[in-house]
Write a structure and sequence with these properties.
Radius of gyration: 18 Å
Distance between the termini: 72 Å
Keywords: Sigma factor, Transcription, Transcription regulation
Protein name: RNA polymerase subunit sigma-70
CATH topology of the largest domain: Arc Repressor Mutant, subunit A
Number of helices: 7
InterPro entries: RNA_pol_sigma-70-like, RNA_pol_sigma-70_dom, RNA_pol_sigma70_r2, RNA_pol_sigma70_r4_t2, RNA_pol_sigma_r2, RNA_pol_sigma_r3/r4-like, WH-like_DNA-bd_sf
GO molecular function, one term: DNA binding
CATH superfamily of the largest domain: Winged helix-like DNA-binding domain superfamily/Winged helix DNA-binding domain
Family: Belongs to the sigma-70 factor family. ECF subfamily.
Number of domains: 2
CATH class of the largest domain: Mainly Alpha
């Protein structure tokens, strides 16, 4: 098999194995299926361009998700959008068995959580998504973010505290409007 054929086979294998992880991370980070699809393509283009420089001492998944994180942060910096969780991602997760009131309440709760997460600093948001949503280990998260495990623990703790604070503020604000 030629080197070109081997490269194509390797890229196809990487894509098949890590597409879902990359797409899930990016949809959580951007909140938009369209943006996540575009960025997922950009991630795998970067993987293709950089595959020859991959350091085999690291896990491939960690390397690919690091690229995904960098692409997401670059996109975030370029577009400077204010809301990380826009319509789309969580709207499709509503159970068909709920009555309309429950659906509305669930949607409102998700919107409050989305808004609270979108107000987090990007490094807290990244840690919350990787640890809390993607359920990666502290070590994997540290490798992806290029920081120490201690920093991941601290940022995760602080991010959760800030998220809790944002949620309490939103809930208190909501109850005042209800009076």
């Amino acid at each position: 098999m030629s080197d070109q054929g081997h490269l194509e086979e390797k890229i196809e294998q990487i894509y098949d194995e890590y597409y879902r992880d990359v797409y899930h991370f990016l949809i959580c980070f951007t909140g938009s299926r369209n943006e996540a699809e575009d960025l997922t393509q950009e991630v795998f283009i970067q993987v293709l361009k950089s595959l020859s420089s991959f350091n085999r001492q690291y896990r491939l998944k960690t390397w690919v998700l690091t690229i995904a994180r960098n692409v997401a942060v670059d996109h975030f910096r370029r577009s400077k959008f204010t809301s990380i969780f826009k319509e789309g991602f969580f709207t499709g997760l509503v159970s068909k068995e709920q009555n309309p009131d429950e659906v509305l309440e669930t949607k409102e709760q998700k919107e409050v959580v989305h808004a609270a997460i979108s107000n987090l600093k990007p490094n807290y948001r990244s840690v919350i998504i990787l640890r809390g949503i993607n359920e990666l280990s502290i070590r994997e998260t540290a490798d992806i973010l290029g920081c120490s495990e201690a920093k991941v623990k601290v940022d995760y703790f602080r991010g959760l505290k800030k998220l809790e604070s944002n949620l309490k503020f939103d809930l208190e604000e909501g109850t005042e409007h209800a009076k």
